């Protein structure tokens, strides 16, 4: 599914698991009486029979979760659940864009590296207004996803809104392969590592790259988390442990006030090399967990733009129909107990990028600022006028 229905979010290690239906208490039975009354009316009185009972159940679940007013808590059909699970394994078909429903509008968080969406020039913050002429405003993310995703080789025509202006673009879907960790040495003897997501294989990919880079005794390391929409929480903590000494990575705070603290241990490969992290408005969820821990512990500095601002944790639960429910169970806080939800992380140095869909490495002002910082040059922070 190249158009992913929401984030693959910072996921609690306890999920997914299959639920069993508990017996209903007397009070709950009373609460459910109107539901069953309506169900019986539809079964007995609706003029067009037979009705699709599976669709009725899925619609009821979708509506129930929608009343919570949380964009990250939602139902996934069996097909959507299967596709979402496949994204963790590293491959799916579609346009390759992570999206979010914001104020009722389908908004791109980040195009996936090497995807048709990236090649077409889609950017974080772009709003997908229509897909093949169908208006997406007000639509559930899963419903919008069903209109945008599709088999490799087929095309979808999108109307995009960017900075108040609209334009149309046709994108040919493809198989999107999610290589999540890459790295190389820069001429200044600085190691450069890019993490594009936090999937099942990201830790292994990073552990395959990093020893070769560190063996070259770099003067510093640049960790590029730009346009990284997030991923699994346990993977994020695993990667944070590579760069952080012993201490807190993040705090999960639940609605009843309970807290769970995730910690790193000492003695790993990337703990002492001078570190700069690149972030932007497409750095979200799990990438904010990692960047926030590095910033709060003083392990490194953040350069770029204010991050997306996704500060809650979700679990995935597989249902008996092979569909799934993703439910927000907690907010997460940085080691300094700061919540970034809907605010984002503030970089230590604001550095804008040049205008344009593609920025070559030689024109990458944020990357150059990171190089300058690590080589002892002076860099100047340029905060945005709007504070974003």
How many DSSP-defined strands?
Answer: 20
CATH superfamily of the domain at 179-374: 2-enoyl-CoA Hydratase, Chain A, domain 1
CATH topology name of the domain at 179-374, in short, is 2-enoyl-CoA Hydratase, Chain A, domain 1
For the record, give the distance between the C-alpha atoms at the N and C termini, rounded to a whole number. Answer: 31 Å
Counting helices, strands and paired strands, the structural category is alpha+beta
**Mind summarizing the main beta sheet?**
7 strands, mixed
Low-confidence stretches: 1-21
Shape field? globular
CATH architectural grouping of the domain at 179-374: Alpha-Beta Complex
Provide tags for this entry.
27% helix; 2-enoyl-CoA Hydratase, Chain A, domain 1; 6-stranded mixed beta sheet; globular; alpha+beta; disordered N terminus
